[in-house]
Amino acid sequence: MGVAPITVESLIPPVQPLPDPARLRVVKALYFFLNASAGIFFSFINVYYRSIGLSGVQIGVINTLAPVIGIFGSTLWGFLSDRFGKTRLLLMVAALGSAIFAMGIASVRTFAWILPLAACYSLFNSTLIPLIDSTNFAILDEYRERYSEQRIWGTSGFIITSSTIGIVLERTGLHSMFAYYTVAMGLLLVIIIRLQPRPTNMGSTIFKGLGQMVRQPLWVIFFASIFIHSIGSNGIGNFLGIALKEMGASDWLIGFCWTVTSLSELPINYYGARMIRRFGAPRLLALSFLVYFVRIIFYGLMPSPNWVLAINLMHSASYGLFWLGSVTYANDLAPDSLKATSQSLFLVAMNLAAVIGAPLAGWLYDSHGKTGMYLTQSLFSLTAFLVFVIGRQVVLQKKT
After folding, report:
1. At residue 86, what are phi and psi to the nearest 5 degrees?
2. How many domains does the chain have?
3. 10 within some domain
């Protein structure tokens, strides 16, 4: 008798159809246009800063202050969403503010002016991801493992813009990125208007519930590991484009490398629900730290810019698993009344890390170059893996 072939479907259990498809379609559109705008702005903003003469340290400072403001913004707005249920209004204000301050950055060329404008931009932009994620989880309800099937639309939006924006900017100039970004945010605003109001479920024990959540040993370990890892991964988003440009890469290659990055996410997004059910969020998160460790080392050792296309294929098993595992785990650790706040606190860990990681990356890049920066930063992901795995094991053993 023949043996049936082993397939992904045979290893990972199937899932059931999603509930409330109309509301979920709106969330898909939110992910699409949010990430489409990110494909324009974040793929080239640091390249733009470098092109107008800012140093690595100055870029690092900008990428430090912005997360500091984002810590306050994402936490406050997540709390307001949980407390009053005005998610749609908050998202509208955030999208409008992001567009206004992005154009403000476009209108100046000195570090002294860009710094406060970038901070104001972060105040508004930092709330978009946690509020959309918490809305997605709220609609999915008991099907929360299907999160990645919604987020795949965001990946598609990023792929479309990142694959074309480099070619467009080579013809229209780097500065035109701000106009294209504003158009994308305008489309996001139109979709936000269609979002249905979100009910509140927070009682009078908000501070007690928040205090209990953040004092959980598992939450502390989760927060600490995200913080440590994010210090080291800072150099990917902030300095990869700059490093490629200085290695001789074209704007097309810089944009296309992020397209390859997003394309690599598609399998994780497609099979994410099944992977969460089969392996659980903690295991996926732990694996992502190890893959990040190897990926960052490869960035430091790549001899030519073309190597980035192959290295970025590791994005699926690093960032893809990291984000899927993190947002799911943050949701699982939070009570029903603090889901948006929990997502915001997850981003707080990343923003706090940027306070250290951004200037550290800038200093390492200026003083030790690409290789020294990335080889040093890879150690943070390895440390995060050890903290998360050993810490969880100790806590779970104490519980039993």
Report:
1. -90, 50
2. 1
3. no
In a domain, 11, yes or no: no
DSSP H or E run through 253: helix 251-279
List the structure tokens of 324: 């899927």
Please state whether the predicted TM-score (pTM) of the whole model is above 0.85: no
CB hemisphere CA count around 144 (13 angstroms): 20
Any domain includes 8: no
User: CA 201 to CA 218: how far, in whole Å?
Assistant: 24
303 CB burial (10 A radius; 0-12, 13-18, 19+): exposed
Q: What is the per-residue pLDDT across 170-203, written as a single tens digit (0 to 9) for each?
A: 889 889 999 999 999 999 999 998 887 655 554 4
Show the tokens assigned to 135.
């809305």
Domain that holds residue 360: 21-399
In this structure, the number of other CB atoms found within 10 A of the CB of residue 398 comes to: 8
Name which of 60-64, 71-75, 115-119, 244-248 the model is least confident about: 71-75
- Domain contains 32: yes
> What's phi and psi for 123, nearest 5 deg?
-55, -40
Please name the residue that has the structure tokens 């890892």. Answer: 229
